[in-house]
C-alpha cells in the first residue's frame, strides 16, 4: 500500500477551497497592485524631476551633506521603526509581528527624491518596494487578516512595487517569492504576487510612466564558446556582486560604530561623495547613471567605470542615504560587461545586458527573477545566455547578499564531505 504526501480531499471540497482562495486574493491583489503602481508612478515622476534639476543646477551637489543630515534627522525623529527598510519587510514576512507604519512610504519617497536631487549614488527599487509593502500592509487591520494572509499581502506589495518601478511584471512576481530565502520559493503566494505585479505595472503605465528601453542587438545562437565565455563573465559578475554587498554592509557597520549620532553619518558621507565627485570628475557616478548604462550597450567605455560607481554607491548607501541598490547594480553590471566584452570576444550590447541582470542576481541572490527580467527587457533570444550568467553569478556570490534579513533555505552547493540531506 502506497502513501501520498498530498492531503486527500473530496473533489468538491478542493474546488470550493480553490474558488474561495481566488475570490479572496484576485481582487485583493489588484488593489495592492493599484496602490503600488500608483505610488511608483508618483515616485518616478518625482525622480525624473530631481534628476533633471541636478543636471541643470550642478551646484546642488554641494548641498549633499546638508541633505543627508536632514534626511537622517527625519528618520531619527520620525522613522526609527522603519529605518530597516527592505529588511523590515522581509523580517515581517518571516516573523509577522507589527503592521508596517504607513509613514514608511512618505519617508522613503521623500528621502530618496532628496538624495537624487543632490546626486547621491542610490537607486529606486528599495523605495518602490517599501512603498508597495507599507501601503499593502495597511489592509491588514482593515480586513483583519491573519499572519499567513498578511505574509502573502506583504509579498504581493513587494511584487507590485518592483514590477511597476522597472516595468517587469514577471520578474517582480518572482522577486518577492525568491528574495526571502536562498534556495526556497513560496508558491502559496504565486498567484497573488503575479496578479499584483501585473496590476501594478499596468496601473503605473496608465499614469503615463515611460520606462527606459535598452537595445541589446543581435544575439548569437548558443554555441560552446559564447556559452563558456558567458559562464566566465558570470563568475566575475558574482564576485563583484558579493564585493558590493560586503562593502556596503561593512561600511554601514563601521560608520555606525564610529559615529553615534545618526544624522551625522550621511552628512559625512555627503562630504566624501560630493568632494570625490568634484576632485575626480566623477559626476557620471552620481544618481542613477541611466545615460551611462545606455552607453554601455552602444560603445566601449572606460574599464574602471564599474569600480567608480561601486565606490560611490557603497559610500552613499553605507553612510545612510536613502534609495535602493538595484539600479546602481545595473550600472555596475552593464559597465563591467562592457569592459569584459573585448576580452571574451562577445558583443558589447550582449555582455552589457548580461552584466546588467547578473550582478543583481548575485548580489540579491535572485537568479530566476533576474533571468526573467532579462527576457522582459531584452527579448527571449537572450534567455539562455541570461540564465547562464545569472545562475553562475548566483553560485559565485556567496550566501550573504544586499538584504541582511534574507535567510538560507537551502545552501547553494553541498560540501563533498557533507552528508546527503544535511544543510550546509
Automatic annotation (TrEMBL):
CDD domains, alphabetized? ClC_sycA_like
Which compartment or compartments is the protein found in? Membrane
The entry's keywords? Membrane, Transmembrane, Transmembrane helix
Q: Name one Pfam family in it.
A: Voltage_CLC
Protein's UniProt keywords contain Oxidoreductase: no
User: Any stretches that span the bilayer, and where are they?
Assistant: 25-47, 59-76, 152-177, 189-209, 229-255, 267-286, 306-331, 343-365, 377-397
Record membrane topology: Multi-pass membrane protein
Identify this protein by name.
Answer: Voltage-gated chloride channel family protein
Amino acid at each position: 500500500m502506497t502513501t501520498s504526501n498530498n492531503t486527500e480531499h473530496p473533489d468538491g471540497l478542493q474546488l470550493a477551497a480553490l474558488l474561495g482562495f481566488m475570490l479572496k486574493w484576485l481582487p485583493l491583489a489588484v488593489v495592492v497592485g493599484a496602490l503600488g503602481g500608483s505610488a511608483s508612478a508618483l515616485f518616478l515622476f518625482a525622480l525624473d524631476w530631481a534628476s533633471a534639476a541636478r543636471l541643470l543646477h550642478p551646484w546642488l551637489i554641494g548641498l549633499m551633506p546638508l541633505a543627508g543630515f536632514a534626511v537622517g534627522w527625519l528618520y531619527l525623529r520620525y522613522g526609527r521603526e522603519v529605518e530597516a527598510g527592505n529588511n523590515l519587510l522581509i523580517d515581517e514576512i518571516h516573523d509577522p509581528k507589527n503592521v508596517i507604519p504607513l509613514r514608511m512610504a512618505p519617508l522613503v519617497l521623500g528621502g530618496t527624491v532628496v538624495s537624487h536631487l543632490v546626486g547621491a549614488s542610490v537607486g529606486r527599487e528599495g523605495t518602490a518596494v517599501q512603498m508597495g509593502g507599507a501601503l499593502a500592509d495597511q489592509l491588514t487591520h482593515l480586513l483583519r487578516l491573519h499572519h499567513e494572509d498578511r505574509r502573502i499581502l506583504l509579498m504581493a506589495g513587494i511584487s507590485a512595487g518592483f514590477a511597476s518601478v522597472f516595468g517587469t511584471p514577471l520578474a517582480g512576481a518572482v522577486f518577492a517569492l525568491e528574495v526571502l530565502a536562498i534556495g526556497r520559493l513560496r508558491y502559496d503566494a504565486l498567484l497573488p504576487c503575479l496578479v499584483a505585479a501585473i496590476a501594478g505595472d499596468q496601473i503605473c503605465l496608465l499614469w503615463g510612466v515611460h520606462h527606459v528601453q535598452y537595445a541589446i542587438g543581435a544575439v548569437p545562437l548558443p554555441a560552446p564558446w559564447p556559452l563558456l565565455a558567458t559562464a566566465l563573465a558570470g563568475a566575475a559578475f558574482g564576485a563583484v556582486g558579493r564585493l558590493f554587498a560586503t562593502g556596503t554592509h561593512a561600511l554601514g557597520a563601521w560608520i555606525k560604530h564610529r559615529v553615534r549620532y545618526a544624522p551625522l553619518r550621511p552628512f559625512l558621507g555627503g562630504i566624501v561623495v560630493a568632494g570625490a565627485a568634484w576632485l575626480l570628475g566623477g559626476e557620471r557616478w552620481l544618481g542613477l547613471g541611466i545615460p551611462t548604462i545606455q552607453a554601455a550597450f552602444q560603445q566601449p567605455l572606460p574599464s574602471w567605470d564599474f569600480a567608480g560607481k561601486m565606490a560611490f554607491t557603497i559610500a552613499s548607501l553605507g553612510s545612510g542615504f536613502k534609495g535602493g541598490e538595484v539600479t546602481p547594480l545595473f550600472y555596475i553590471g552593464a559597465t563591467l560587461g562592457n569592459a569584459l566584452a573585448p576580452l571574451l570576444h562577445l558583443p558589447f550590447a550582449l555582455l552589457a545586458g548580461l552584466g546588467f541582470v547578473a550582478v543583481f542576481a548575485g548580489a540579491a541572490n535572485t537568479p530566476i527573477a533576474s533571468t526573467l527580467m532579462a527576457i522582459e527587457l531584452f527579448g527571449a533570444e537572450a534567455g539562455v545566455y541570461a540564465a547562464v550568467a545569472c545562475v553562475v553569478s548566483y553560485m559565485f556570490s556567496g550566501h550573504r547578499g544586499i538584504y541582511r534579513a534574507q535567510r538560507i533555505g537551502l545552501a547553494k552547493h553541498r560540501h563533498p564531505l557533507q552528508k546527503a540531506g544535511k544543510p550546509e
